[in-house]
Amino acid sequence: MPLLTQRIPDENDYCLVASLDNVRNLSTILKAIHFREHATCFATKNGIKVTVENAKCVQANAFIQAGIFQEFRVQEESVTFRINLTVLLDCLSIFGSSPVPGTFTALRMCYQGYGYPLMLFLEEGGVVTVCKINTQEPEETLDFDFCSTNVINKIILQSEGLREAFSELDMTSEVLQITMSPDKPYFRLSTFGNAGSSHLDYPKDSDLMELFHCNETQVNSFLFTFLQIQDFFTETLYKGISPVL
Length: 245
Known about the structure:
This protein is mostly beta strands and 245 residues long. The protein has two domains: 16-136, Box (Proliferating Cell Nuclear Antigen); 153-236, no CATH class. It is built from three helices and 18 strands. It has helices at residues 24-31, 85-92, 159-166; strands spanning 16-20, 38-44, 47-54, 58-65, 71-74, 79-84, 106-111, 118-124, 127-133, 135-136, 153-158, 175-180, 187-193, 196-202, 209-214, 218-223, 233-239, 242-244. Strand 17 (233-239) and strand 18 form a beta hairpin. The protein is elongated and about 60 Å long. The protein starts with 15 loop residues before the first strand and ends with a strand.
């Protein structure tokens, strides 16, 4: 019997139940924010948000909408727990990459509530593996509170093209300086490494730009270690002097 149609004993006791017929998409999304070992998960009727933070100054969020799952049930208004993201990703890829075209790993995920482990039922080719991952007390996460009325500059970029730009940057530089301006150079990436300073400029009508809205010139510097570029849209917001990439 396919995993997604099986009923787990006492399943009504679980406050979170979610099923996917292909776990690869979920794994890819979580890898995009995997720059720290632990993550905090928030589940509501709208889906699951996974948050990773570093040093209380960098935050990455992945939101998996409820409609992506073949089955998604949350018995409470919200469910929150902290989990080892490294272990979770290892479990999701426990079958490895399948050599048979058209073969996928199905997932059924269950969580009974505070103090209980997150249970993963993974099936591929008739073989079912059960993983139990201990959950932890959730920590308070940062609330950047980017009210739309207070956003000074906003740029949405295609991160695939931005990643190509990163490959041309001088990685000996400790920081990446980002300039946003309503006038030239519009959007600039600057590095200051062993070979000197270098700049990459992008016009506001560049194919890389999905949205360009700048009210004033701002220049901010970020540590390279805090920047994660993946094949998703990258949104840069500036509210006062509090930058987030």
